[in-house]
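@channel sequence for tomorrow's demo:
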Amino acid sequence: MADTRKIVVVLKGYPRLSETFIAQEILGLEKAGLDLALFALRRPTDRKRHPVHDEIKAPVSYLPEYLHEEPGRVLRAFFKALPRAGFWRALPAFLRDLMRDPTRNRVRRFGQALVLADEWPEDAGWLHSHFIHTPASVTRYASVMIGIPWTCSAHAKDIWTSPDWELSGKLASARWTVTCTKDGYSRLQSLAGERSRVHLSYHGLDLDRFGHVANTGSSRDGSDPDNPALILSVGRAVEKKGYDILLRALALLPTALNWRFVHIGGGDKLAELQKLAKELGLDGRIAWKGALAQEDVLAHYRTSDLFVLPCRVAADGDRDGLPNVLVEASSQRLMCVSTDVAGVPELIVDGENGLLVPPEDPQALAAALERAICDPYMREAFGDSAEKRVRGAFDHRSSIRQLTELFKESWCNEQ
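structure tokens (generated this afternoon):
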């Protein structure tokens, strides 16, 4: 057996503007010499693409998002699987899961696995899932059907909104699992049992793509109405990002302080946030840009004075790991204000390279924002420290090397 194999990578949706870290990793693995084929559970919904998506050479296939939409494809896969031993090995695992999770989604995952097994590339020899929830379920069932080992990258929501029984089963089944924060690593490690195969691997950033620049917005201090401080945030309008808390914090800033806020991103709660901003009397000071391509986001990093992302734990347990936008902003010497939630403190050290406040606290967030707006010298010093932190510990080449070594070690052990 050769020490390299074509890897089928199972993704929830592809391409997605909010998941540049996945695209960056795929491109990095390709540049490291690995051969990939992508299978996504959902077709793209974003109207734009990042440049990195156009650089990826791996072919992309789409599994049926809903089984009833492609019945012929699903039935063909089912009848072809029936006489195969792999189907009968996978069926008991699926039925056990279905008893604990009797939902249409569970049936859909098994159906998608059937199609993946039926349309398996002939020269592929490994399975890898991005996210340990839905994509990993499809990957795990397909792995049993085909008799091909699988591995997994776990991130944030997938770790914190999956039940313990499901995580434990997947961790035991996968050859290894990587995750991107100490917070997530601790949870997975606690469920992995004695034979732990969980590894911590920060996503990192392609620093060649983002470049080394001097941020030019650091002289504003909020005193000039004709030259207000520019506050930036990039993120989907969803509960865990805490944008309602941010709007309430902005409303608490002194009326004499001059600032403008730019939000980049889509999301289900965007209209609700815009309504709240109007109720708080902020709508004239906010620009809602919607989803933008990476080069446009980069331009905003380079012209803003500070970056803010008030992460929180959502009601259903969903939370960020270490938001990639904080790493991106820091790489551009842009001081960040955030919350001490999940993996954020692994990048930002309060009072050294940014400011952290408790989640759900608009007063504390307002105080941090006022301090940052009024003190351009602090912003410059913290921005310098943030960039050094990223370049020292969050270069994506380290994570690509680690993943490549894990794959090749696994292949050698399979011989």
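heads up for whoever presents: The CA atoms of residues 233 and 263 lie 5 Å apart.
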